[in-house]
Amino acid sequence: MLLVSGLFLGAAQGAQPPTRVILVLDASGSMWGKVDGKTKIEIARETVAGLMKDWDPAIELGLMAYGHRREGDCKDIELLVSVSKTDPARIVKTVNTLHPKGKTPLSDAVRLAAERLDYRKSKATVILVSDGEESCGADPCAVGAALKKAGADFTVHVVGFDVKKEERAGLVCLAKNTGGQFFAAKDATELKAALATAVKQAKQTPNVTIIAVPRRGAKPFASTDYVSIHPLGPDGKPAEKQITGNHGNPTRFALPAGRYQAKVKVGNGSATAEFEVKPEKTTELIVVVGVGKVRITAIPKPDAKPFKSTNYVGIFPVGPDGKPAPKQLTGNYGNPTEFTLPAGRYQAEVTLGKGSARADFEVKPEETTSITVIVEVGTVRLTFVPGKGAAPFPSTSYVRIYPLGPDGKPAEKQITGNYGNPVTFTLPAGRYQVSAKVRENWSPSEIEVKA
């Protein structure tokens, strides 16, 4: 479902306020590392110098660095050039004086840059260039989310320069949580392109607003998981690769004139919508993502208290024939567990220890469905001793659990096993044979487990 409206933007009433940006440069010791035979700090110096040659005077730029004065000091963060009318020569000269030495307190640097931009009262953008992950114990994800929530219009664009894939998560999350973009730059050419794009985006004013709702006429979702924008080609097909993306609700983008497809994801549901951006007009889209929620609580028997947690809850779509799909759509653990799902019929499989149970349910748009699943399991704690009243063995070599059949005979195959003393098992209600090995001796006994 898609609603599109275009509003003409008249001539500006007076001058537009300047765009205010702080560039945060990594000057930690790792910037002496080399890319294509040249140190990363040299590449950064040359890239900034090139960027300053054609600097837009409408953008006020400040410069901050970290790790450039002291080794091992997470407080080594300094605003080198305050935000004001940009002096390109001063920026270049200051960057050329940086000599990498220390750690990577990138989260605190971004937080300080936000404060210097007075981000709570006005639009503010930070562009971070880092060649590695946070090394001072802070959480970039949490910092980004907090700054976005407190800011008037705050964004961090992050350029990961020669950053290993396994070290990118925090950098990506920092950008995503503030509505910015993450750029992976493996060399000088890509660093130059990434910085140029980040600066361009900092100046742009959003002209597209996307609002996601569960059904037509309903209140918008509190947030979306992600909204990606894909240009439409001459054949009307969307490009596989997005040109930008964000999360939240509404989400806003600055896009050149053209035709696009928006892909909106909420929980495990998604929807697409095509729209057109025209010069000097704003576009608003209302996209219906028909999802609802389910809340699943697992208990051992009717009217019992819920389990503290589950091992896993899997969600399987139910087909027209009433049968669950062989492959799950999603899953999680905990108790209760909640899922956001497309409208439809499903089956939940709840696993606790070696027990499990299934239950069917239906999800409707905008509604929350609550179900209770009875998983008839109990917990048994086994302690092994050499004799009545004796102290427990230090440990067991192994403990095997076999279900007992109606004839009282144990199954050939064990249901589970472990070692230690005591050992604890969560098992379906029923009778079992316990076979414990201590040193070289196996000793069988029978137990009953109740839910």
UniProtKB/TrEMBL annotation:
SUPFAM superfamilies: vWA-like. SMART domains: VWA (SM00327). This is VWFA domain-containing protein. Residues 20-199 form the VWFA domain. It comes from Candidatus Muproteobacteria bacterium RBG_16_64_10. PANTHER family: CALCIUM-ACTIVATED CHLORIDE CHANNEL REGULATOR, ZINC FINGER (C3HC4-TYPE RING FINGER) FAMILY PROTEIN. PROSITE patterns: VWFA. It holds the Pfam family VWA_2. It comes from the Bacteria.
